[in-house]
Amino acid sequence: MQGSRKEHLYKVLVIGDLGVGKTSVIKRYVQQSFSPNYRATIGVDFALKVLNWNTETIRLQLWDIAGQERFGNMTRVYYREATGAFIVFDVTRPSTFEAVTKWKEDLDSKLSLPNGGGVAAVLLANKCDQGRDVLTNNGLKMEQFCKENGFVGWFETSAKENINIDEAASCLVKHIIANENDVLQSQARDAVKPQLNAQTSSSCSGCFRL
């Protein structure tokens, strides 16, 4: 009798300024659909995406957080227990890119992993079907921006044309899993520490370099 597939549930935030296409990205990813007439999200909305990831089942709970919620007291509640985030800007509106660092700072100030590290965040340069801005034309500058601000990667995306949505999600999931493994290893090492401290024999004192 074969064992059942291992399942994981990850909470993923989708944040960014009003009108950058967060809802459209989620609808494309989850439902493979697009509409130009989505209403602005009020507060927060939810969607679920189920992935077969190698030999495991991954459930992504996507939290679509309204753009006007930035820096509000509620974002701390919305962010709680999230393991990853997409931060989205509109390539046709430079002000939404300028807001990216503020969203990232808000995220990092209110959410961290159990080991103190930041959650995995992927930057989405959305609506690339409508043209490319000066910044995204320079991939090296974007990569430098991501390194400086703690993003694990960035993608030019289009919910309308279904460009790079799945690829961006796969990148985020890969980093969420890597972070989870790092946390588990850290916890395992911490659990071993008291046992090592209790050892009187010097022969085991260097088994774990912590």
TrEMBL record:
Record's GO cellular component terms: late endosome; lysosome; membrane; phagocytic vesicle; trans-Golgi network
GO MF annotations, alphabetized: GTP binding; GTPase activity
Keywords carried by this UniProt record: GTP-binding, Lipoprotein, Membrane, Nucleotide-binding, Prenylation
A Pfam family matched in the record: Ras
Protein's membrane topology: Lipid-anchor
Domain of life: Eukaryota
SMART domains: RAB, RAN, RAS, RHO
One BP annotation, GO: phagosome-lysosome fusion
PROSITE patterns: RAB (PS51419), RAS (PS51421), RHO (PS51420)
Main localization category: membrane
Compartments (UniProt record): Endomembrane system; Membrane
Family the UniProt entry places it in: Belongs to the small GTPase superfamily. Rab family.
Function, in words: The small GTPases Rab are key regulators in vesicle trafficking.
Name by which UniProt lists this protein: Ras-related protein Rab
